[in-house]
Design a protein that fits this description.
The protein is an alpha/beta fold and 496 residues long. It is built from 14 helices and 16 strands. β12, α10 and β13 form a beta-alpha-beta unit.
Length: 496
């Protein structure tokens, strides 16, 4: 218990808070009224312990309200200088030191440390995701190509055909896991171009409305024409799908209302709180703001900073990639996403994408001729994984090609020197011992500059072509690829 009584303030104390001395009442309730309500219980506890004789002095950091309404931080220190015969305090002397500047520096340092931790985590996840993509996709390559070969000529209405179709579908879904991780890290490559964001969202909504539960009411406010951004339509669809799915899953058994709105804001209007990616700095141009708001359960404070971490979920195990993918797409499009939420009061997700001054080209439907998938001639296959090499060689033969196999780049160059006249194309893996795909391509092109080369890798195309390269292959195949895709790419590069 802290006794009440007269408190004498001096002019410097009053001036620190923007008052004159005659504006502050000489009573402890003045100090209590000016102390931040969140800080008062702890400060009173520290002061009370000292007044009770439990400590030699008291010291606490807390906030006081300035005349302007702002809160300043003070270091509150003091001690009892006189007690009566029973030890009851009679006089206390103390000081308040303005430490606002120091506290702001500490807050800024904590913010920078948090951003640094997030960047380090992203770099670590990037290395891990790249390794997963390479090894995981290499194994899936053998699985999917084997399934392709086994399915060929087998009717789907047989038990074996149905089982193989299910297995292929599961293998494709497994490949999407590593793809989602790379999307989260912004390591996917897509063709960006000017898009009317309203029109692009409307095209997606026709399918999304059909998938929504009947308990969800979707209200939209999409201007026409909409803001124009540089993006990829498929990625916008993926972004919108994940945001709306997250919104309708945030509801309970009662009716949930989702509001989808689109507007244009200035860079200064983009909030800093709960903004990702942490390294985002808005440019000078205006931004499109795509907002998805729900009336669901809301998000606890301790969970907001984890929302975009891969596989973090408050639902059930196995979920948690939707918002991670959204962040990756936003990162790829040089934008940002913010979250505003409180438990029981729903959530608001806002995606900010920079506007572009590019004009939207006239749309036309080109006539696409089906590529020839049955070929002829010899393909030099360079692959260090024996299982993958064996199954891809079988696939090439099924497509009509003859195959010469090499376990690494050194062997490939030696075989090419011997059979140069017969080899019409080289299909080489990227990561191999002794001589990688780049070195193998360079060595073969010295011998035959015009020979088509296809580079294959479990890494994403963005990772493979991230550096400035002196030469590039005629085509790139992301593992795992299907037999049909292999046939299309071979037919194209050998016809050029």
């Amino acid at each position: 218990h802290v006794p009440s009584g007269t408190v004498t303030f001096n002019q410097r104390w009053a001036a620190m808070l923007g008052y004159t001395l005659d504006q502050v009442e000489s009573h402890i309730r003045t100090w209590e009224a000016l102390t931040h309500p969140e800080d008062l219980p702890q400060v009173m506890k520290v002061l009370g312990a000292h007044l009770a004789g439990e400590t030699d002095s008291y010291e606490a950091e807390h906030r006081l309200r300035h005349l302007s309404g702002e809160w300043i931080w003070v270091l509150d220190k003091g001690r009892v200088i006189e007690r009566d015969g029973q030890g009851k305090p009679l006089r206390v002397c103390g000081t308040h030191l303005d430490i606002t500047a120091r506290k702001r520096m500490e807050e800024e340092r904590e913010k920078l440390e948090f951003q640094n931790r997030q960047l380090q985590k992203s770099e670590s996840l990037g290395r891990m995701a790249g390794a997963i993509a390479h090894h995981f996709n290499n194994k899936l390559q053998a699985v999917m190509m084997s399934l392709d070969l086994a399915r060929e000529g087998l009717p789907n209405n047989t038990a074996a055909g149905e089982s193989l179709a299910v297995a292929m579908q599961s293998a494709c879904q497994a490949a999407e896991v590593s793809s989602s991780m790379l999307t989260y890290l912004g390591q996917t490559q897509c063709k960006l171009g000017p898009l009317d964001l309203s029109k692009t969202c409307l095209k997606s909504l026709s399918l999304l409305r059909a998938a929504m539960p009947q308990t969800v009411a979707l209200k939209t406010e999409l201007p026409s024409p909409g803001p124009v951004v540089s993006a990829d339509a498929n990625q916008v669809h993926q972004l919108l799908t994940n945001l709306l799915t997250n919104a309708w899953e945030a509801g309970d058994t009662a009716r949930n209302t989702i509001r989808l709105t689109l507007c244009t804001v200035s860079a200064a209007d983009i909030p800093v709180a709960h903004r990702r990616p942490t390294e985002f700095q808005p440019g000078s141009a205006p931004y499109a703001c795509l907002e998805v708001a729900d009336t669901g359960r809301g998000i606890a404070d301790q969970d907001i900073e984890k929302l975009f971490d891969p596989f973090f979920t408050t639902k059930f195990t196995g979920r948690g990639m939707g918002l991670s993918v959204v962040l990756g797409i936003v990162r790829t499009l040089h934008g940002a996403i913010t979250v505003q939420s409180q438990p029981g009061q729903g959530s608001v997700f806002r995606v900010f994408l920079p506007l572009t001054e590019e004009s939207i080209p006239l749309q036309w439907e080109p006539v696409i001729q089906a590529p020839k998938t049955i070929g002829s001639g010899m393909v030099l296959l360079v692959e260090d994984e024996a299982v993958v090499r064996k199954v891809v060689a079988l696939g090439l033969k099924r497509l009509g090609y003859t195959v010469m196999e090499a376990a690494d780049g050194v062997e490939a160059v030696a075989l090419f020197r011997q059979y140069r006249a017969d080899i019409r194309c080289v299909l080489t893996d990227l990561t191999m011992p002794h001589m990688d795909g780049w070195e193998t391509m360079a060595a073969i092109r010295q011998l035959a500059p015009g020979l088509p080369v296809i580079l294959a890798s479990g890494y994403s195309e963005a990772q493979v072509f991230a550096s400035n390269l002196p030469a590039v292959p005629q085509a790139f195949l992301r593992k795992p690829y299907e037999l049909r895709k292999l046939g299309e790419v071979l037919a194209r590069v050998m016809a050029e």
